[in-house]
Amino acid sequence: MESKEIDSGVLTALAKQMRLSATLEINELVQQRTAKGYKVVHLGFGEATFPIQKDVAAAHREASNITSYLPVAGMAELRQAIAKFQSRRLKNNIQPSQVVVAPGSKPLLFALFDLLQGDVLLPRPSWVSYEPQITHAGKKIFWVETDEEDRHTITESSLQSAFSRAVEQGGNPRIMLINSPSNPTGQAFNTSDIEIISTFCKSHDITLISDEIYSDISFSEETSATPCSGSQFNVGQKILTGGLSKTYSAGGWRVGYAIFPANDFGERVQSAVLAYASECWSTASAPAQKAAAVAFDTSPEMDLYRSQVVLLHKRCTLALYHALRQCGLAVSEPKGAFYVYPSFHPYSKQLKARGIRNSQELSRWLIEECGVAALPGSAFGEDDAGPIGGRYRLRMATSYLYFRDQSERYQDGYRILDLALDANNNLKLPLLDEAIQAIQNAAAKLRLAP
């Protein structure tokens, strides 16, 4: 009895709210079921799995003997590469001095939420880690409701509604975080969307953080809009975050970055982040930074690799999207990244007859009864008792539908990347076919009486 009382006082109230990330949790569940001999189609984990571009891999190997601490802000060579790459993308003259490098973009977001004043406006749904990051900083979250169909589009009225609700409840909404292309929806903002969000944030003195970790995996120019483009980036309070993990399939190397505007706001926040970093993570891995400097190069070789990656993700993700629609699910066409975000609400009657009342129970049924791993919408902030468009949502990632293991990734990966450039080739993706078949089987089960 005494030990229980001692244990109950070990953790802070905040720590007791923390739990394993849903994305990592489902990955471990899949591994456990696979080890027991179950066949599982893994659509639950958003880890890009293409082979590393050869020059980037070589740079990492050659830098493996660099063991000294690098500057807190990051290796000069890498900051210069990021600035040059983003200057081209953003059509703005980004300076290396505006860039801060970290071991992934996650710690940078933690730092920003810890350092910036005010509570947070967060679109619903949002990536699973945003909510705990904000909670960790002791801030309140006020959800911004998105379009019922695509679960991404934000209107001026939905922004004003969230802001007014925050004020009425005693909040101090001073920060907004957006993610485009989006995890979990695969949707992306267009220029009009960005204008609405940027104007609203500026008029209410809100710092806008734009997480653009998937920005290079955009399926069209129309949906690659960002609030940080052109000279507008240096007007007001905006911060861009990104990283190496998604486009370059190098999540385990842990390289992220933030870009701050060239104004007084940017300089003050950047200075605070560097002080925070010096006491927290010190610096990102030296070999990974050296390799990242090659990855962010604007060379023809890296531009080719980025094009191959986008075309492959687009082909695979759209194929899964079309299959989901044919199964009668409510799903919008993805505009980027490698996610689809279907709702099973057209099967509400059949689901309730099976005792499945929410997305969590649907996710569990799908993996246990149908061998398909997908994350529930509730992990992304969806309200299973809310508007029908957010109910019975599942996030499905296509990133694991190319290779069965690490060996196959490097034996076949470069050949598959080369084939991506020819839209007319008959590219075979057996794991994609298996995923589609498994989902078709799940839909067929739902059509039958339980």
UniProtKB/TrEMBL annotation:
Cofactor(s) required for function per UniProt: pyridoxal 5'-phosphate
Keyword terms of this UniProt record: Aminotransferase, Pyridoxal phosphate, Transferase
GO biological process terms, semicolon-separated: amino acid metabolic process
Organism for this UniProt entry: Hypocrea atroviridis (strain ATCC 20476 / IMI 206040) (Trichoderma atroviride)
UniProt family annotation: Belongs to the class-I pyridoxal-phosphate-dependent aminotransferase family.
Protein name (record): Aminotransferase class I/classII large domain-containing protein
SUPFAM superfamilies: PLP-dependent transferases
InterPro entries, alphabetized: Aminotransferase_I/II_large, AspAT/PAT-like, NHTrfase_class1_PyrdxlP-BS, PyrdxlP-dep_Trfase, PyrdxlP-dep_Trfase_major, PyrdxlP-dep_Trfase_small
Domain Aminotransferase class I/classII large, first and last residues per copy: 39-397
PANTHER family: ASPARTATE AMINOTRANSFERASE
